[in-house]
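RECORD TYPE: inverse folding
INPUT: structure tokens
STRUCTURE:
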């Protein structure tokens, strides 16, 4: 038994290294064979190094120099190029942009790139080495100075093949063909013309001899990796029944281009990952990976999931071709998972990169236990329907047993989208699609509080805190940390800060905003956003009357690079405000870090209401609308002037939420949700053929029997005869249907003492021969409003019509003229009605091509009423129920969680109902009744119970099935025949 976790990148990834100052490094730096990153500390020279030394961790140094006119920027080596570095730019207004790439396209003066870090490291004791949790492009700061004078190693990666901009299908087909058509790393003619010595080498020759090691990767979902790692260390991933520890294996790509690596090197990497790190590598070609990740995921999926619909795609062929790459990559993941799967394993698939994988696995492994978790936001159905591949994406996700989201809002959006686009019915926070129930849960991911607390209390962080307090003495610090992309709202944040300073000039020399921007690679970097925020920052800094060349006197310090982990934690600890203004975000763990860091200062958190964390921390955070610049500026002032008691009260509320929803909680609840969903799926999949001898035996050993039969069509003469024979003094027989009261009475007028449940439970006629109907439905005022909605839909779908009953509305589309529009109109109608009327207990669902709109839970209300009636009459008390009265349900409507107890012998021991049989085709009306019977039998409250479904048995709660209505009549006839023989 293993938990197989699939994510785009593996948590451990290969790393190639070379001496920074060697001739080979110099030659490689001038070639197009590789990308060379920042120097790192000395490492062993063995060909393969299995473990990452603790001292390898480092912090970013902004000695970044980009070589123009290259497919991918090459990072310079050593100190030789630092005088030409463009990583820190000071513009005319004096704003210092550390690690920025904007200077490539500007005339700004280039200044020292180490300025900010030197500001934070001056005065640190010489025997300290400051380390971070391991991002790439980093170097260690030792003895308060740059360690580049020591012997260094450079991290290098192969260059991936170029993915051309696809303009037409012919070009797409050409690129999709032979990989040899695009030898992006073989620049033969250019090499000769440029006398590029290093490029004369073949890539395979270069990487055949370079040493490599496996290290903790800098790519991928680090929060998820850390959460699982912590759960493994604490032995929390275990069998729920035996408490045996369950191992974890990973499936993902290796994080580096592999086309130009020698086969034996790739094989060695794959083997070492499998044997030492429980990781199964997905090896895909560079073109497929770039098309799937860089194009489809980052340019189509990512922005749309965050409500940023791309309005200028390169071409239809671009989207179609990148979709082909996305499908191919997902299939490769599915193949690796299937190959390594064993019975009893749990498959846990993560994030939007792999939306198709659950469905692909389900096709090959129909009984597998599969969970899917989406770490980003899930938009409303109106936005998701903009995807050209919307149905395929939803069907892929619905291959899971359990689907997890960060918030209830995202879960609700997913349910509504499936309801609208797939016309799948929504039952108890789940999706019933293609005969299978998919559970939908919301469990926010969290952080490891103990590890973070240890880092906060470390000497390194404490030393940095002292320096920060000294550098910005008597200043209020507003700290922000974001990726530099359009959804983070950095420009709106700066505009709000600018307005705050203009409207409150008394704060101009008292407040500093430190904006840290991470994610500086070409895939995630947005040069337009960077230039925009830099201009705003310049304008803000021009408000100062002081010398703004010093960091401590600037209004805005803009850092376009990740800084040391301890430096960041020190800033968070000393922050007087932490500001997050994202337009959309799944779950922002940065604010969770801040709450923990702010244990001493209890500083306010200004948090965008459109982040997943806002739902979790709303009890203590100051929620802002990032588009409302005025309100955001006012919130900054409000937070700065917040009283100490209010700060403490707010912080306690947030801290409680962070503690209760830490990383352990997320892992445990997520895996528990997958297990519970799979158990329910297996239970619904084990419907056995009905055993007539068993039913007859149970019937004989019972005294009072209840039969409820769901019949959707007019009765045949054979059914009328079977019912007549079955009814007796101790046999209470009821027919449940959608028919109206008057129609129902006419259809069964020939059967004496038959009980009727009309309009799916809205009205009940008892089997005592009385002429009256009992009203179960609570309200019907919503019918006129629903009809107005349907009138608008009929205008768009000529030929469609609806029928109004006393408690329901039925929408028919069988006569619609435009058959192609039926699905979209019906799906839109379901979503519209459920959104508007769901809170009023009204639900729209599709059954056998007809859209029903009715109050929820009526069939459960009806059976409760019937049992309450028999509990009164059979125990000798008088029933005072009046005709046409409003009958309130005596218990909450939840047949599975809170089953009724009317079957319990202790309620009326002399003449209890001890036999119940419920039958019908699977539908939202009869399935809750199956659940009631099963629960009562399991709880020993009912002596004999039979839930029998006919037709489709997938995802049914029934325990038995018959092939159809005729076989059910056979069962009833055999019961009556055996009963008559005894009498």
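DESIGNED SEQUENCE:
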């Amino acid at each position: 038994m293993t938990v197989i976790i699939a994510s785009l990148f593996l948590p451990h990834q290969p790393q190639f290294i070379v001496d920074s100052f060697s001739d080979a490094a110099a030659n490689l730096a001038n070639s197009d064979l590789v990308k060379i990153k920042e120097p790192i500390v000395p490492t062993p020279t063995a060909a393969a190094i299995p473990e990452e030394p603790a001292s390898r961790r480092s912090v970013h140094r902004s000695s970044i120099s980009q070589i123009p006119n290259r497919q991918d920027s090459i990072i310079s080596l050593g100190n030789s190029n630092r005088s030409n570095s463009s990583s820190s730019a000071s513009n005319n207004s004096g704003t210092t942009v550390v690690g920025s790439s904007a200077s490539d396209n500007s005339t700004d003066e280039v200044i020292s790139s180490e300025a900010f870090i030197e500001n934070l490291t001056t005065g640190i004791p010489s025997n300290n080495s400051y380390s971070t949790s391991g991002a790439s492009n980093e170097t260690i700061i030792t003895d308060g100075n740059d360690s580049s004078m020591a012997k260094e190693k450079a991290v290098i990666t192969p260059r991936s093949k170029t993915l051309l901009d696809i303009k037409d299908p012919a070009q797409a087909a050409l690129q999709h063909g032979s990989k040899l058509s695009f030898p992006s790393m073989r620049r033969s003619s250019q090499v000769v013309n440029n006398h590029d010595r290093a490029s004369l080498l073949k890539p395979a020759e270069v990487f055949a001899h370079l040493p490599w090691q496996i290290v903790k990767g800098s790519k991928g979902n680090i929060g998820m990796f850390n959460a699982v790692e912590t759960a493994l260390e604490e032995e929390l991933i275990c069998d729920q029944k035996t408490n045996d520890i369950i191992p974890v294996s990973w499936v993902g790509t290796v994080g580096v281009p592999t086309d130009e690596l020698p086969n034996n090197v790739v094989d060695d990497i794959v083997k070492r990952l499998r044997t030492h790190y429980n990781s199964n590598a997905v090896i895909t070609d560079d073109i497929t990976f770039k098309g799937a990740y860089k194009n489809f995921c980052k340019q189509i999926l990512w922005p749309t999931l965050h409500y940023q619909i791309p309005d200028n795609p390169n071409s239809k062929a671009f989207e179609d071709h990148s979709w082909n790459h996305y499908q191919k990559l997902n299939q490769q993941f599915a193949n690796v998972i299937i190959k390594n799967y064993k019975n009893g394993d749990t498959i846990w698939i993560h994030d939007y990169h792999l939306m198709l994988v659950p469905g692909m696995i389900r096709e090959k492994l129909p009984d597998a236990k599969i969970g899917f978790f989406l770490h980003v936001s899930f938009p409303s159905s109106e936005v998701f329907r903009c995807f050209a591949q919307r149905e395929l994406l939803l069907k892929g996700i619905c291959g899971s047993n359990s689907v997890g989201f960060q918030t209830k809002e995202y879960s609700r959006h997913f349910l509504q989208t499936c309801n609208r686009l797939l016309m799948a019915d929504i039952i108890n926070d789940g999706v019933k699609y293609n005969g299978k129930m998919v559970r939908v849960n919301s469990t926010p991911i969290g952080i490891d509080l103990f590890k973070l607390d240890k880092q906060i209390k470390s000497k390194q962080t404490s030393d940095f805190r002292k320096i920060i307090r000294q550098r910005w003495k008597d200043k209020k610090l507003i700290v922000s940390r974001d990726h530099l992309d359009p959804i983070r709202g950095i420009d709106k944040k700066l505009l709000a800060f600018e307005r705050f300073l203009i409207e409150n000039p008394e704060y101009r020399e008292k407040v500093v905003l430190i904006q840290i921007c991470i994610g500086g690679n070409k895939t995630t970097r947005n040069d337009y956003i960077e230039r925009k925020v830099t201009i705003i920052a310049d304008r803000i800094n021009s408000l100062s009357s002081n010398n703004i060349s010093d960091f401590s006197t600037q209004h805005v310090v803009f850092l376009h690079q990740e800084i040391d982990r301890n430096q960041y934690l020190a800033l968070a600890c000393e922050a007087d405000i932490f500001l997050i203004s994202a337009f959309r975000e799944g779950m922002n763990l940065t604010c969770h870090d801040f709450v923990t860091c702010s244990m001493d200062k209890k500083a306010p958190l200004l948090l965008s209401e459109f982040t997943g964390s806002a739902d979790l921390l709303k009890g203590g955070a100051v929620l802002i609308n990032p588009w409302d610049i005025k309100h955001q500026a006012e919130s900054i002032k409000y937070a700065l002037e917040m009283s100490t008691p209010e700060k403490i009260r707010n912080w306690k509320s947030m801290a409680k939420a962070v503690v209760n929803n830490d990383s352990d909680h997320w892992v445990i609840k997520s895996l528990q949700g997958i297990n519970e969903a799979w158990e329910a799926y297996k239970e619904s999949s084990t419907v056995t053929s009905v055993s007539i001898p068993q039913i007859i035996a149970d019937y004989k050993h019972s005294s009072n029997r209840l039969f409820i039969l769901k019949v959707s069509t007019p009765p045949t003469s054979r059914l009328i005869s079977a019912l007549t024979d079955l009814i007796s003094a101790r046999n209470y027989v009821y027919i449940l249907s959608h028919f109206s009261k008057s129609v129902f009475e006419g259809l069964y007028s020939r059967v004496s003492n038959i009980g009727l449940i009309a309009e799916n439970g809205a009205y009940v006629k008892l089997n005592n021969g009385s002429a009256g109907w009992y009203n179960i439905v609570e309200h019907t005022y919503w019918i006129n409003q629903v009809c107005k909605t349907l009138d608008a839909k009929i205008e768009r779908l000529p030929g469609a019509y609806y029928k109004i009953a006393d408690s329901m509305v039925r929408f028919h589309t069988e006569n619609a003229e435009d058959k192609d529009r039926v699905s979209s109109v019906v799906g839109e109608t379901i979503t519209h009605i459920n959104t508007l009327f769901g809170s009023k207990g009204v639900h729209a669902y599709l059954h056998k091509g007809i859209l029903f709109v009715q109050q929820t839970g009526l069939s459960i209300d009806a059976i409760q009423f019937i049992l309450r009636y028999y509990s009164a009459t059979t125990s000798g008390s008088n029933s005072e129920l009046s005709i046409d009265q409003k009958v309130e349900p005596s218990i909450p409507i939840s047949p599975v969680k809170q089953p009724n107890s009317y079957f319990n012998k202790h309620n009326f021991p002399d003449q209890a109902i001890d036999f119940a049989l419920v039958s019908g085709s699977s539908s939202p009306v009869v399935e809750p009744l199956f659940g009631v019977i099963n629960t009562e039998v399991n709880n020993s409250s009912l002596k004999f119970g039979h839930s029998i479904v006919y037709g489709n048995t997938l995802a049914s709660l029934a325990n038995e099935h018959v092939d159809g209505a005729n076989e059910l009549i056979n069962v009833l006839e055999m019961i009556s025949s055996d009963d008559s023989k005894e009498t």
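NOTES: The longest helix spans residues 316-340.
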